[in-house]
Amino acid sequence: MTTTRASLNGSHASCRVVMFQRRPLPGQHSVERVFADVRQALPADLEVEVLVLPFESRRVVNRLRNIVFARRHRGDVNHITGDVHYIALGLPRSSTILTVLDLVSLNRLRGMRRLTLVFLWYRLPVWRSRYVTVISDWTRSELVALLPGAARKTMVVHCPVSPKLRVSKRSPHARPILLQVGTAPNKNLLRVVQALGCLPVHLRIVGHLDTEQMSSLSAAEVDFSHAAGISDDEMAAEYANCDLVIFASTYEGFGLPILEAQASGRPVITSSVASMPDVAGHGALFVDPTDVIQIRKAICSVLEDPALYESLVRRGTQNVDRFRSSSIAQTYAELYLAVFTPNA
pTM of the prediction? Predict the structure, then answer.
């Protein structure tokens, strides 16, 4: 449990904001890092308390226990920071803000399982929340398409880029290092591996590799190394040590590695689908994530054309200014105070 206090326009009203966070599974920390940066930049006279749910979000019993926990520890403002939407059922509707990160789970389900998820993970929690925030225009469009009535209460509040990341001087490697962040199915590692076949590069992978991915790397004879469970400082070092970030994901609610790479002064190749064009702005080279040849050509273009390389770096660092934590935290602070103010 952590608490933060700040001041907004000299206001001294006592407002206790509780940020509810999931109990993360191994390797799940991106949401937690995002809201840690938000809290550090909050400019409001707010008492912000972070509560990690006591049970992993698996099985009905654990989820019911989490709902009871949320009910017992509710504050003046209750912010569900993502991936545990269902605890809204235990919180007052008038004082609850729900953050929806993405709708990717719906793409993997069909039939009754999908209908159940829609009802319990989206429809009921959205109804039980006063406001809903989403992290990209793409996620908002998906949510409103699913629940048209959510449009009036849903607003986009982007993820901030970590203020710890700084543009670092690049020391080119004889064998360029390409950084791939993430190994989940949507991160598209298998197609990236196919695209790299026989190229004189080193692929650095952050994430756990499964048997299929290891076999693919071996079959394509890709020179690679990997790491998992690394700290924020270690992740910053990964960006600083690479020559290029490849993030050809098939689906993202946001795509934070795009901004992290840009903030570190590294060029980005990312996908022309979902949220990624909006997040990357003009600071990336876009590809069809299903087209292996296009991914390969993009990698070769960036590595072989110094002017393109420097242009992507320059435009990327300019794009990051849209996602500074100070302005994003200000938006959340104003939303908290709107919820706290009677009849706001």
Answer: 0.88
Task: Give the count of alpha carbons within 13 A of 158, CB side only.
Answer: 21
Which pairing describes strands 47-52 and 2-5: parallel, antiparallel, or unpaired?
antiparallel
Question: How far is Cα of residue 301 from the mean position of the Cα atoms in its chain?
Answer: 28
Q: How many CB atoms lie within 10 A of CB 263?
A: 25
- Ranges 31-35, 92-96, 153-157, 283-287: which has the least confidence: 31-35
Q: How many helices (H) and strands (E) does the chain have?
A: 13, 13
Two structure tokens written together for 195: 């695209």
Q: Given phi > 0 = left and psi -120 to 50 = alpha, else beta, which region is 290?
A: alpha
Task: Catalogue all structural domains in the chain, each as residue range(s) with its CATH number.
Answer: 2-160+324-340 (3.40.50.2000), 177-322 (3.40.50.2000)
- Provide the pLDDT for residue 170: 85
Could you tell me where the DSSP H helices lie in 220-323? 232-241, 256-263, 276-280, 292-304, 306-319
